[in-house]
Amino acid sequence: MKTILTFLFAILCTTGAFAQTTAEKVNQKVKDKTTQRVNTKTDQAIDKGLDKTEEAIGNIFKKKSKKDKKEDTDANANTGNSSSGSSSSSGNGAQPNSFSDFVAGNKVIFYDDFKQDALSDFPAKWNTNGSGKVVTVSGQPGKWLDITHNSVVNPVIDKALPENCTIEFDLYLQVSGDRQTPFIEFGLTPVKDVMRDDLFYKDKFYVSMNRYNENDGRQLEYGLKDPVGNKNDFPLPTYSNKVLHVSMAINKTRVRVYIDKSKLIDLPRALTPELRNNFFLCNMYTVPASDLGVLVSNLRIASSETDARSLLIKQLMEEGRAVTNDILFDVNSDVIKKESYDIINQFGDALKANADLKIRITGHTDADGTAAKNLDLSKKRAAAVKNYLTTNYGIDNDRIETDGKGSSMPVGSNTTAEGKAKNRRVEFTKL
Length: 431
Description:
CATH architecture of the largest domain: Sandwich
CATH class of the largest domain: Mainly Beta
Shape: globular
Number of helices: 5
């Protein structure tokens, strides 16, 4: 009997201990859950406050964008061009672009399309603190520089950029399933050698593009070392697996940035002379690391000490001849690139303003390909420019003659990218 009572007492003690332990666990769980819910509410309140702040900042920049758009529209109205539609990439019946005041510099300082570089090599005219390689992109012409994760690259230029210059390049925003897209950054820095000096600890002007394939997560920011603002309403996801053309205009302290011909950034007091020491592109360090590289091609840096528009028309009217490398075409094609419309529009305006003016348009090419094909291509390109002017400005056919010289009259070496860029030109002659 004594043994049974001892056993029952032990059971009761164990049960009591278990009940006590269970009660303690429940109490602790309640405390933990309460803390978690308080933290969640606090985070939500903070997020809500940050959302309102970001919205307020975003509204400021949206208002500025509307002003810029109005200024661009007003400027277009002053050219005598009645078209307000979006531009096309075709030279046949294309409408002049009314959303950009960008004019490329007329003296080429640096140009690279990587034609001279072997695939899988890092390009000879560039520098890096990391790695990259020349590649081809399915469905896209030419070669591209693939910049790997956590790598900065820059073109090797002996001198600082001029006070007035332009920078243009193509980005291919590649997307591949669930693979991590790169965090793209480009801009200006005082660092002259990115391999020996870390530009992220220096002043810089930058534009960054992150999560560009996500409708709800995309980021397009800009700043001076630290963020200044954003243009997150720009439709970056629509450029997934497409080419995005970037243009920058530098005028002393002022910098303007155009994305696919839309002027997104215009900062009149942003730059210092030191920031013109170097131009850079970067595949930013992220966690997790990007699986895909930053793809860039067709970098063109040119001086614009004299406004290319006024200079060309002045030369035509006073000297009887004007030549430009800024009327660009698709590769091996007579299709005019839309970024060339602003230059051609100046000749359209001159023809409209001077009823007695007659001109000859002559096309020139580099020496890639056969002489016969280059001759035919140069004639077709001259004809495409004429067609643009007659279609969009109502100029009579008999006021414009066309001709082509192919690669027979080079003005630069056909063995370098810079020389070939100079040879691809359009000449206007007053008759």
